Structures are given as structure tokens and as C-alpha cells.
């Protein structure tokens, strides 16, 4: 047998094996996503132990929590487009290694500054992993029907990770020290690196021209400024303070400069013509609106359960679990729904279900209503995941194979920005509706009323110091004002969700399952040039 024939036979065998094992590849990608999703929430329950051990200041404590999502969100476009250029598997494996090293440094950190640096490094690793998983998934599943099912599993795993993080963290803290919440990443990375090297296919976008390093840095710095400013607004900071306004202005200027630069370049980092496609731009807008309406609301709901209904943190987490389980269910049946309904009706249905859940939850009052909360949270989780599933699938399908890394990064960045803006916007609505109700409580001094107007938790502290009839009156007024503010926030969220439903009418009516022109060659590359290295392990 000639050498050429042998090589061709080997290529076909590897290609066939690759296609047969695409579901194993999905498992590997889902493990990557699970790791990042768990790490985003696992630290929340460990913060009291971290504070007691490292004694960070107020600013240091804020950076310990916020530096991971800040760095991750700002670098998604940089590493998503870099993967299109140098190889998505290569970036993913580098992200694995960086994540493992950063986890070890964070676990053994002896002061707050080292922990902040380690968390920033974790954000860099997360930004490498997140868009790479979606872009490799886009390559491994060229058939849209199979890809829809894979995206459903992928999104269900993301929901599991977000819910499991605090539970895993709580279990570890009961038996070990706070650094153990980071050490759990290391054995997973030790397994993921060789498994990923053996099983994941390499792929690159067929893009000409050099990678725009200046544009990538502009995008990263601009997004960092925008996300930082939005997070400060969400934390209750005023817009006109220098530490809030300056990052927003600089971030906006850099992002505008990035857009103008990409339009002028012959070989842009991100092809902005993607946004001229109605399905792509509408999908991105739907992701932003869905997160804008829901993330801030989820935080407020957690406060309602703990501060109004006086549930423990564990019982609060258990009450919110049905939302996660419903989201998992929607992810698993999403591909079926997409085939039957099409992108337009699926996303519109998701928005409408979520809006209905939000409106139903306006019946929440000062007393516990488990049946209402259960049904509302189940409908909320199912509707939200239905919306995000349809939007992500449509966005990823609309992007050419060569730009799948950049498209995935745009989707993840939209998710992060929508979440940050949602916290800021709905938090502002909540504060505007809550504070006026405490301005004239009989017998309560103006200074005490002003302090109580900052938050319900602070109002309870002030009421405790006042004591007697005045303290009881302030406590009741604060609780009633919080419930009123929650109702106003729910109504604003419902309006945003219905706006999203109107926007989703621009999506395609039917699910077109015809393969794009270059899909076949992208899925199993032809034997030319670097094709052999793309398929081989």
C-alpha cells in the first residue's frame, strides 16, 4: 500500500472516529464549563472565613469578589478571537493550565493582595475557557439539530454549576479551610489537560491577515472600564463620583474607538458586519435584555427571602433551587422546542413565560407563600433558559465557522454586560421605590430614617438600636417599603421582558437545518496543509 493511500486511510479513520466521539467531546467541554461556573459562585459562602483569616480592608474585600468577573468579562473578546487565529483547543488547554496554577495560588494565599492577583489570573483562565468551549462545540456539531441538543446540555450544565457552587463551598468549609474551595479545581485540571489534548479537535478560522493586537487590547480595556463602572453603580455608588464616571467614560471611549478601528481595517478582529444580520444582532439584544431583567431581580429575591421572610441562607438556597432545576429542564428539552417552534416563537415564548412569572410574583407580600414562590420560580427558570437557549443557538448558528470564537465571545460579553447593567438598573429602581417610605415614620429621627433608607438590612440595625415602639415602627415601615419596592422592580422587569418579546419577532420563523456552505469542510477538514493537525490529537 502506498504512503499516500495509507495517509488517506488514516485521515478517514481519524475523521470517522472524531465524528463518532463528538458526544464524548461534549462531555469534556461541559466539564470545562462546569468548572468555570462553579468557581464563579463557590467563593460566596467562603467570604466570611476569608475575611476572618486574611483581614482584608473594605476595598480589598470588594476586589476579591469582583476581580474574577471583571477580568473574565473584559478578556472574552480578546481570547475568543485569538482562538480563531491560533487554534481554539490551544487556547482552551492554556486556559486549563492557567486555571489550575491560579487555583493553587489562591488556595495558599497568605494575604488579600495575593488572593486578588490569583482571582484575576482565574479570570484570565476563565476568559480562555468560556468562548473556546462554545466555538469548539460549533465545530464538532456541524448539523444544527445535533448542535441544538448539545447547546441544551451545555446550558443545563451551566445552570448546575451556578447552583452547585455554594453547596460545594459550604460542604468544604464544614470540613476544611477556605482554601479548599480553590483546591478542588486542581485535580479536575490535571484530568482535563491530557483528556482535552487527546479528545478535543483543533480548529482555526480561515482568516487572512495579522491578529489586531492593538484592537484586542482596546476591547479588553474598554470592556473592563464599562463593567467596572456598571458594577459600581450596581453597588449603590453615585454616577457622578470619579471612581464610577471615569471608568464608564474611558470604557465607552475605548469601545467606540475599537468599533471605528474594526470598520477601517481590511482584516478586522471582529467582523462587525455580523451585526447587520438581523438574527445575530437580535439574538445578542435578547441575551442582554433577558439578563438585564433577571439578574438584579434574583439578588433582590434572595434579600426578600432572608430579610422579609427571615429564612436562613440554607433555606433561601433551597427555595431558589427550583429555578435552577427548571432551567436545567428547559435546556434539555430546548432542541425539541426549537425544532417544533422555530427560533422566533421559542424566544418570544420564553420572554412571555418569564414575564408572566414575574407578574405573578408581584403577589408576594410580608408573609410566606411557598406555593406562589415555587410556581413562580419554576416558571421563571424555565422561561429564562428557553429565551437564552433560543438566542444563543440562533447567534451561534448565524456566525460563520471561521468567526465562531469571536461570536461566542460576543455572546458571553453580552451576558456579562446585561447582568451588570441589570443589577445597576433594577437596584436603582428598588432604591427609588424603597427609600421614600421611610422619610416620615412617626417618632423616628430624620438621621435614623436616612440611614434606614440605604437598605433593609441597615434599617433593621437602626431599628434595633432605637428599640421600643419607635424601632418596631421603623422595622414595619422598612419591610413594607421593601415589598413595595420589590413590586415596582418586578413590574419594570416585566416591561423589559415584554420589550424583549417584541424584539425577538425579528428572529427567523423556522429552524433552517441546512448546513452552511463551508460547514462540512470545517467539521472534518480536507487533507491539505494543516488539516491533519486539526483532526489528530
Automatic annotation (TrEMBL):
One term of GO molecular function: transmembrane transporter activity
GO biological process per UniProt: response to antibiotic
Membrane topology term: Multi-pass membrane protein
Record key words, sorted: Antibiotic resistance, Cell membrane, Membrane, Transmembrane, Transmembrane helix, Transport
Entry superkingdom: Bacteria
Keyword field contains Cell inner membrane: no
Compositionally biased residues, Low complexity: 518-530
Bilayer-crossing regions: 23-46, 58-79, 91-110, 116-137, 149-169, 175-199, 211-228, 240-259, 280-305, 317-334, 346-365, 371-392, 413-434, 485-505
UniProt-annotated stretches for the region Disordered: 518-537
Pfam families reported for this sequence: MFS_1 (PF07690)
GO cellular component: plasma membrane
InterPro entries from the UniProt entry: MFS (IPR011701), MFS_dom (IPR020846), MFS_trans_sf (IPR036259)
Residue ranges of domain Major facilitator superfamily (MFS) profile in the record: 25-512
Compartment(s) where it occurs, according to its Swiss-Prot or TrEMBL record: Cell membrane
Protein name: Transporter
Protein source organism: Streptomyces nodosus
Amino acid at each position: 500500500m502506498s504512503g499516500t493511500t495509507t495517509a488517506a486511510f488514516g485521515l478517514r479513520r481519524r475523521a470517522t472516529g472524531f465524528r463518532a466521539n463528538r458526544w464524548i467531546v461534549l462531555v469534556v467541554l461541559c466539564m470545562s464549563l462546569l468548572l468555570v461556573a462553579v468557581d464563579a459562585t463557590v467563593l460566596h459562602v467562603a467570604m466570611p472565613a476569608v475575611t476572618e483569616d486574611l483581614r482584608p480592608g473594605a476595598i480589598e474585600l470588594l476586589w476579591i469578589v469582583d476581580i474574577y468577573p471583571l477580568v473574565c468579562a473584559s478578556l472574552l473578546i480578546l481570547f475568543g478571537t485569538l482562538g480563531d487565529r491560533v487554534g481554539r483547543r490551544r487556547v482552551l488547554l492554556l486556559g486549563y493550565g492557567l486555571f489550575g496554577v491560579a487555583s493553587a495560588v489562591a488556595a495558599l494565599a497568605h494575604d488579600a493582595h495575593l488572593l486578588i492577583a490569583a482571582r484575576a489570573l482565574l479570570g484570565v483562565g476563565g476568559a480562555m475557557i468560556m468562548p473556546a468551549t462554545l466555538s469548539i462545540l460549533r465545530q464538532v456539531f456541524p448539523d444544527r439539530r445535533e448542535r441544538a441538543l448539545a447547546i441544551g446540555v451545555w446550558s443545563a450544565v451551566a445552570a448546575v454549576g451556578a447552583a452547585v457552587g455554594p453547596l460545594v463551598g459550604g460542604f468544604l468549609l464544614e470540613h476544611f479551610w477556605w482554601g479548599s474551595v480553590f483546591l478542588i479545581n486542581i485535580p479536575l485540571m490535571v484530568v482535563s489537560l491530557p483528556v482535552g489534548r487527546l479528545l478535543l479537535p483543533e480548529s482555526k478560522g480561515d482568516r487572512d491577515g495579522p491578529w489586531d493586537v492593538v484592537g484586542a487590547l482596546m476591547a479588553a480595556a474598554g470592556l473592563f472600564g464599562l463593567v467596572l463602572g456598571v458594577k459600581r453603580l450596581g453597588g449603590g455608588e453615585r454616577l457622578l463620583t470619579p471612581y464610577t464616571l471615569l471608568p464608564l467614560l474611558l470604557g465607552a471611549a475605548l469601545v467606540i474607538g475599537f468599533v471605528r478601528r474594526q470598520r477601517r481595517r481590511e482584516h478586522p478582529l471582529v467582523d462587525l458586519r455580523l451585526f447587520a444580520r438581523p438574527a445575530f444582532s437580535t439574538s445578542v439584544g435578547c441575551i442582554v435584555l433577558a439578563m438585564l431583567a433577571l439578574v438584579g431581580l434574583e439578588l433582590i429575591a434572595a434579600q426578600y427571602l432572608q430579610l422579609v421572610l427571615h429564612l436562613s441562607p440554607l433555606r433561601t438556597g433551597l427555595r431558589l433551587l427550583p429555578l435552577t432545576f427548571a432551567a436545567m429542564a428547559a435546556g434539555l428539552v430546548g432542541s425539541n422546542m426549537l425544532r417544533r417552534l422555530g427560533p422566533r416563537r421559542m424566544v418570544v415564548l420564553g420572554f412571555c413565560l418569564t414575564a408572566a412569572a414575574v407578574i405573578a410574583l408581584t403577589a408576594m407580600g410580608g408573609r410566606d407563600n411557598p406555593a406562589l414562590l415555587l410556581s413562580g420560580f419554576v416558571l421563571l427558570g424555565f422561561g429564562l433558559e428557553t429565551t437564552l437557549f433560543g438566542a444563543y443557538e440562533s447567534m451561534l448558528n448565524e456566525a460563520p465557522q471561521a468567526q465562531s470564537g469571536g461570536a461566542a465571545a460576543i455572546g458571553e460579553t453580552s451576558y456579562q454586560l446585561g447582568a451588570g447593567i441589570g443589577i445597576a438598573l433594577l437596584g436603582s429602581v428598588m432604591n427609588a421605590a424603597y427609600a421614600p417610605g421611610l422619610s416620615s415614620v412617626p417618632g423616628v429621627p430624620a438621621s435614623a430614617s436616612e440611614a434606614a433608607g440605604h437598605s433593609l438590612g441597615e434599617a433593621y440595625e437602626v431599628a434595633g438600636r432605637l428599640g421600643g415602639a419607635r424601632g418596631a415602627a421603623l422595622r414595619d415601615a422598612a419591610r413594607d417599603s421593601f415589598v413595595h419596592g420589590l413590586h415596582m422592580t418586578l413590574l419594570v422587569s416585566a416591561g423589559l421582558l415584554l420589550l424583549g418579546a417584541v424584539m425577538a419577532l425579528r428572529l427567523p420563523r423556522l429552524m433552517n437545518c441546512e448546513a452552511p456552505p463551508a460547514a462540512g469542510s470545517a467539521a472534518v477538514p480536507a487533507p491539505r496543509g494543516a488539516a491533519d493537525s486539526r483532526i489528530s490529537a
